[in-house]
Amino acid sequence: MKNRSSRLWILACALVVLVPGFWLASRTWLRSPARGLPYHDSFSSGKSDEWKALGGTWELVDGMMRNDSDERGAKLLTGSTWWRDYSIDADVYLLGVSGDAGLLIRSSDEEQGVNAYNGYYAGVRTIDNSVVLGRAQHSWMESAQRSLVQGGIRPFQWYHIRLLAVDCQIAVSVSAPGEPLHTAFGASDANCIHSGRAGLRSYSSGGIWRNVSIQPATHHDLDAMLAGAGEKGSTFQHSTVTTDSVQLHTRRMLEEAEERAMAVSSASTQNIANLRFAPYATPTRYTVRGVVTLTSPSLYVQDSTGGVYVQTSESLHLKLGDEVEVTGDAHPGSFSSSLQNATVRVLWVRTPLPPLSVTASQAATGRYDATFIEVRGRLVTKERAPNNTLLLNLEEGAQTFRAIMNPGRGDSLFARLKPDSSLRIRGICVTDPSMTKSLTPFDLLLRSNEDLDVIAGPPWWNTGHIIEIVVAALVLALIGVFLYHRVENWRLRAIMQERERLAHEMHDTLAQSFAGIGFQLQAIRNGLTNASDDVRHQLDLASSLVRHSHQEARRSIATLRTEELETEDLISALERCARRMVQEGNIQVECQKEGDQRTIPLRIVDALYRIGQEAIANAIRHASPSQLVIRVRYAASSVQLEISDNGCGFVQSASLLGFGLRGMRRRAQQISAALSIESSPDRGTRICVDAPLPPHASVFVWPLRVIKAFWEHSIYARTTTSNRPSSHR
Amino acid sequence: MFISIQRFHRSAVRIGCLAGAWLCALHILGCSSHTSPRIAIIPQTEGMSIWDAVHVGAESQAQRSALTVYWNAPTREDDVDGQIALVDHVTHDRYQGLILAPSQSLALISPVRRALERGIPTAIISSPLPLPHSANLINIVNDDELGGHLAAQRVVAMLNGHGTVALLGINPDITGIMTRAHTFELELTRVAPGIEIVERHAGTFNALHEQQVAEDTLRAHPGLDVIIALTWDTADGAYRAIESNANAHATRIVAFDCIGIPAFDQWKRLDSIIQQNTRAMGQKAVEALNTRMRGGAMPADMLVPPRLITRDNISNADVREMFSADLELWNWRWSLFK
Predict the structure, then answer these.
(1) Which helix (H) or strand (E) holds B215?
(2) A361 touches chain B (CB under 8 A)
(3) In 3D, which of A654, A673, A655 has the Cα closest to residue A664?
(4) What is the pLDDT of residues A312-330, one digit of tens each?
(5) Which of B109, B164, B182 to probe the A interface (max A CBs under 10 A)?
(6) What is the ipTM of this complex?
(7) How far, in Å, CA of A217 to CA of A220, rounded?
(8) Partner of A146 at 20 to 30 A CA spacing, among A70, A188, B210, B239?
(9) Digit-coded pLDDT (tens) for A179-197
(10) Touching check for A720 and chain B: CB below 8 Å?
(11) Contact state of B197 with A279 under an 8 Å Cβ cutoff
């Protein structure tokens, strides 16, 4: 007991030390400024799971991260908010003529919005050909110092930017290819932000980022950077920017010609909805104006009346949100039209349109064909299409539809999606059977994986979980029943041990005393030579009483002793008990065993043994038999114990149901056994107990046994309650 | 207490057995009420008598094939959700066959696919539904291309190669209507380039709206020769517009799908009607489903030719039969007591 207590104490102390220790260690690790550093992007291998987008249309294209949108303040973030002194390096490529693109450092509390973050930003800006450095705190504070870059900042050109933060000093350096010098300057922020994530950001311009690396920084690095030793211009690659670099330049040319283009008033323009009523037989050229809602895999333009698919042979690099004028041959379709052989002119650069929120039933009417919509749906299945596009099969109400995502950044999100999740999806609604394969009324073409929100995961109460609960309940029930039987066995063993102890006590005290008293009385009688006959008679009577009491005490001891039950089978134990009781008499004890002996639960053996003892004792005490038969029959599902004698018998009546017989009935009831007593005067007595044995334990039997045990327990409890007044009587 | 629990237990067992027996009996009764296979026919609407012909054709064939017909449809042809609910009801109740005249060419795709996934043989009638091929699917649809051709040829004959036409009632929701419009335009341009389509308008199933559209068209084109009304609601609206416009009495109407026997005597400006044979579609659809239900293969898709109906042939027996909603077995049998 002492050892167990010690072990418990040691365990408790270990828990007290280990749990907080583990918590502290994990907290320290999570908050470590060095966790995850140094870092280098895996864009070239198509991985960007660690980056989180806020705004923009961030996608991996040709191993580089690209944001095609001109959204003001589109951000892509990575790292830990506990990063303190570090630098971030990247090659940055501006996709617009009137914005800036760059890097974020020590950023936290980010939200979607222009300056919705706390942190520092440095980038290259085309408007004033300068390097911009500033701090955002849900408002913008720009450094008074501004450096002009030699040769100016030009779009569609790579710049290497390095942004570094050490203590409260922030520094930036920018170098352009072919330029021998780099621009570098720093700023000191008295009330600085001490830690935060790193990120990429663009403002009113798209951009491309590559070779993003983040590493711990020191004052030495800061000094070296400002002194020029950290110049990174040599790392530039002069290879083609992307496969669509030609288109990017074309776009630039278009944007530069914007004013000129706007000055030339185009011919009459039409609403996009009117294209549906264009002549079908002879394609007619129409001009529409609208906003670009999708650029890849197809170009879609939308105005307030609807959307149109634009097929153009021109190599353009349009961005979402661009306001364009499209002229082409109108081909009216069932629900929307297409403009083929089209020419596209960028009128203005805008942020992307918000989606039109509709239900799947509304989208399934075709009314929103070629329109940018937002739909909610439940994910049924997900799959990869042959061309490696990601396909989500969804349903809402009576309608089913599909969402088609591009691989790349969508991969990790796709892998995380679970069937039955509730999703909100934004995309271009397409009803063209060549796209839907006539499997669904419409498909949604997603612009990026930011167009997919998981509103709620799959409901917990699904078939799998219900099966798990049932299995767990069964296992728990099995464990409960197992423990119940173990405890019951322990209790029975404790009772037996106590009885054994009482028997030893009685043997050592009461029986010995009776023997001593008898011996003394005999000695007194033998010593009284001249005593009267009355005295002798009284002494004989006393000796007889003592002898009788001694015999009773020995019987009681024999009854209490159960050692044999643990070492012998039932019939041997009863035979030993009977022979012990009749050892000074002339009663013949006969034992019979029928059937294949099998292991009987201790609870049943004990009950049968007690019933047998009582029956044997009753026969010896009251029936004066010459023969006592003990018979045990082992059947397939029960065991029968029969005690019969050829004594005087008795007339069965309620008045004869003494304590012994009541005790036998109670014991029989406890093991669900049937007790029968047959007796008549001069024809002996036969007591039979038929006890059912539990079936062989198996997974399927245990639950039934549990239910049965509860049922029996309930009935027994009620019966005991209802019989309590009569037992008192 | 012990006895009462035992009694309760016995009572519970008895009640359970009794309830089980009742359920079995009800189930057997329920099953016995549908001894013959049930097929469901869901037209676009029950509110227009044009679909009664489908019912007649299907019912007559169903009686020959010992099939039970469930007939129901929304009261309006633009109640797409109502039609979807009916299809889902038929799918859920595991009818042995489904005949559907879709009122929307996209929205019905998912419900019909569910029916097909449950193995219900399905016939699409009147206007096609863009669904992938299935062994349980057949399209028995109106030959709308032929309809467009007939309309174009009629217009050419009416105008002798020169004139103006307005194409009204273009409804993208129904593929067949779009096919008619496109084929009409292609054929007209090919055969008679001198005839100009001066107006194209989207249509609805609201005759008042269609009247407004037609009035606007007549105002914009006072000398308009012909209005092609792609639906009957459009024809109805166009007729009223012509009647109310004193300058448009030369304008004539070529319409599609009259809801009853066309009243040429009353509608003086109604030139002709291109009528789909819904009765034949219903009949052929039931035949096809019956073949499939008996283990045979579904026949190939069918195009049922429409009929050009004019004043000259309106009295023909075959034309009258197309509009007939008379089924002998439907006639109430009176038993007179003396």
Answers:
(1) helix B207-220
(2) yes
(3) A673
(4) 887 667 888 888 899 999 9
(5) B109
(6) 0.71
(7) 8
(8) A70
(9) 666 788 888 888 889 999 9
(10) no
(11) yes
